[in-house]
Each structure stands twice: as C-alpha cells, then as structure tokens.
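If you are new to this repository, start here. Below is one unmodified record pulled from the training split, so you can see the exact layout before writing a loader.
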Amino acid sequence: MGRRYFYALIAGTALSIAPAEPSLAQGPPQPGGPPTGAASIARPPRNSFRQGRPRWRDMSPADRQRFQSNVERWRQMPPEERRELRDRAIRRQERLKSETEAALRESGLQLEAERRAQFEQRYIQERKRIEQSLRQELQEKRQREMAPVVERLKQEFAQPQKSGSPATSVAPSSSPK
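And here is the target side for that same chain:
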C-alpha cells in the first residue's frame, strides 16, 4: 500500500506540473489568433513556468523537500513503472471526470460552459477535502485500535519463555488483523 501510494503520488505530481496546451480545447483557430498544430504543441506556452512558480513559493520547506525527492525517485524509476503510474493516474482522472459528470447530471442543473467548469472544479475540491478527512480519520482510528494490540503483544513477548521448551505458540486473538 505504502509503495503504491508513493508511486501514485509521484505520478500525480509529475502529471500535475506538466503544462497543459489550452489551444487543444479551444476548437478551431480564430483568424489572427495564436498558431495551432504541431508547432504550438511542441512547445509549452511561454508563461507555463511562471504559473508554477507561485505553487513552489507557496509550498512549505517540507513539501518542497518531499517534491524534490519524489522528482528524483521518478527520474530513477524504470520506464515500465513510469508508464504504469501514468496509466493509473489517467484512469483515476477519467474516473473522477465521469463521477463529476454523474454528480452534475444527478443535480439536475443545466449550466453553461463557464458555470459547468466552476461546478466541476468545486466538486473536485470538495471531494479532495472529504477524501483527505476520511484518510485522516482512518489513520487516527488505526492508531487508536493498534495501541492496545501493541501493548498486549508487548506484555506477551516480555514474559520469559520456559527453558528447554520449543517456541510458544501464540493464541489467535479475537480482533481482526
């Protein structure tokens, strides 16, 4: 779980800092507008790095360190693992997009494009907040429930073994592992 989560985090981070090409979602080019096609796709927009700077400045030193170590691990990762993580991140994004669209359909709202985008953004923000809260609650519950287990094991293994007898068998506990 830990390793998979770590790799997913790296893939998500790497994909989240990749510059998006806005001309791909804007439809046909307007006369006199910016160039489209291979030339515009080959190079990210000029201001894409400037947009990333505030994110970096807003990060805490610990977050910056974690980000840098994740980038280094990503660089050292074999191509197959990178591809797997990218695919997993893409599947997650597609699932999130379809669930967002389902929530919009269930709401019964008929929104124009701008308001729809705002709805989707808010839905994703709220969902991330809820998921973070649930992860934190689960971690706290796990810690609360594991404390008595550790204490019981500590007492069990602190007792001296009988000399000359084989290792004592541990009786199964009533709580799930």
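Two things worth knowing about this chain: The longest helix spans residues 113-158. Residues 113-154 form one domain.
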